[in-house]
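Notebook entry, structure prediction.
Reason for the run: the old model in the group folder had no record of what sequence produced it. Starting over properly, with the input documented here first.
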Amino acid sequence: MTERSHLFEEDMEWISNEPLPWERLAGSTIVVTGSTGLIGMTAIHALIHASRKRGLGLHICAVIRDPDKAERVFGDLTGAPELTLLKGTMEDLPEVPQNTEYWIHGACPTASAFMTAHPTRVIRTSLEGTTGLLEKARETATKGFVFLSSMEAFGEVREEKLLDENTLGTVNLSKVRSCYPESKRMCEMLCTSYAQEFGIPAMSVRLAQTFGPGVDYNDRRVFAMMTRNAINGEDIVLATKGTSRHPYLYTAQAVTAILTVLLKGEPGQTYNAANPATYCSIFEMGEMVAREVAGGRISVRVDENGDASRYPAPSFLKMDISKIEALGWRPQHDLVWMYKRLESWLRSEK
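New structure, fully documented this time:
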């Protein structure tokens, strides 16, 4: 087994061993959107792994935009009996099986450059897709619907304090980059509204930034950039000082948080999912990577001419996870552990 497959297999085994009420999923059909993204792809692999290990007899329907990418992402699972690929978009949803019982909705653009270049598409993908899926959920025997929200839904929080799900900051609607957090807020509201008005067991998981095995080597997000720099012995150059502070989350643990809410959450509610042990600024994280991952061979510096317009405004997102912890979920490990696993994965991808 290669290092690449070993890391991923370890994560799948860890997820399948989580003390969840797996029996509730037995014989179920589960629709997953955003299925070729990091979290969606990991969730699908994990569900099929757990289904085979536990004899659950799951049927996963992955909504995909690009069949070629789906084949690359799912590899040997592409022809598996547990997996069906449904070609469509959030604006033009495919037909789904009438016996669909569970939904994991993660489709949304995540690159900051895309958000600033195509804000209307971000808004339409979010709102039309979420509304369309919730309408489809009304037509099936839905037992659980989870929308994957983001810590960016908190907006700008200038005071460093513990943030529960109802403690929100401001969103500057004069900046097109705000299309993302404002859309996430509205989609959370849609889930709450469908739960109250139509009895759909819809919930939201507000995720911290997530990474781990499965990240593409050329991913342009800062955690991947820093890891590549450590691998290649190159200094980390930041576009801004990175004064915002927020937590992170390992991919496999994001999946267990999603499944925890799907199976144990209260309809209409939103749940924070983060690892408080990882709370730091981008600059602090860069220093940690330079020290712990690169062994002190590189340094961190700020490009004084860097373009900060593509990034969220400075904010302190110290997420309170007591609500999801009450459901039995716990994060594990620290940021160094997460980065060491990401480093091993990216080295195998290089």
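Summary: The first strand starts at residue 29 and ends at 33.
The old model has been moved to the deprecated folder.
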